[in-house]
């Protein structure tokens, strides 16, 4: 299966990425050659999606190594990029893995080695997405599916996680259409997932986030499937805000709710969801969009970018290594430890 577009390229000495804030109106590539520009691109969601953030974290180390391949500069760059957004674990672990891979080399080899690491990381990610899609087919019931946010090519550089499963189900003739939440406040579903589905020829039905519970209880979808930014060992999962509401509605309606994510999303440092750091974003993002304002000035906003769905509401976590089912603790740890032994090789 093929991703509908390329969204990321490692062209030493720059990282090239599609600017996701301009889609779907404009397909504009950013050329990033310094850490300040990379930090701004991550913070403002020009690049986003947990697996793609991991790739960008690794590219940050490569960019830093071009300027100063010394131990301190590489370690500092990995730490600095890893701090830009707190919830997606792979931003920090991708940067740290790239740093660890190059620190064992002579300084003059490090920049080239870091760019090679990035290219291999992308290839591995693409293979993982394919495996997630194959494994997802084994558990996803036939029928139409609801998804949230963007978990496609724009979020991984491959065919996507949840969206990869949806692509595979469509290719197998097991779903006729994909329901897509708009995903407020930044409209990742309405702008990005719909863009990918149109490019792939998969019928898409867009709904306001506020209509999701009505859709789920209407009997129109046989499953809900989303991605993840960080998964605790007990299966509690942080994903784009609104995911928890979908899982609660799905539990009420008896519709299975699935997470699709690479094993690298599991954080063995989080025993449960209370340990997952949640990013809060500005009031401006809720009160307007792209320079347009619809709320009066001077109001406060409560704007978490993510919420945590308890593992007990998740029918299965679909990974490239296999399917984890509740109770999650030992199964998730085993999947993580197996995969961690191969990270960066
Ligand atoms: C395969 S992407 C999985 C998640 O990163 C995705 O669902 C999500 O929540 C993205 O949030 P974002 O704030 O757009 O980076």
TrEMBL record:
Active site annotation, chain numbering: 229 (proton donor)
A biological process term (GO) from this entry: L-methionine salvage from methylthioadenosine
Listed EC numbers: 5.3.1.23
Gene Ontology MF, one: S-methyl-5-thioribose-1-phosphate isomerase activity
Keyword hit for ATP-binding: no
InterPro entries hit by this protein: IF-2B-related, IF-M1Pi, IF_2B-like_C, Initiation_fac_2B_a/b/d, M1Pi_N, NagB/RpiA_transferase-like
Taxonomic superkingdom: Bacteria
Family in the record: Belongs to the EIF-2B alpha/beta/delta subunits family. MtnA subfamily.
Name of the protein this chain belongs to: Methylthioribose-1-phosphate isomerase
Annotated source species: Tepidiforma thermophila (strain KCTC 52669 / CGMCC 1.13589 / G233)
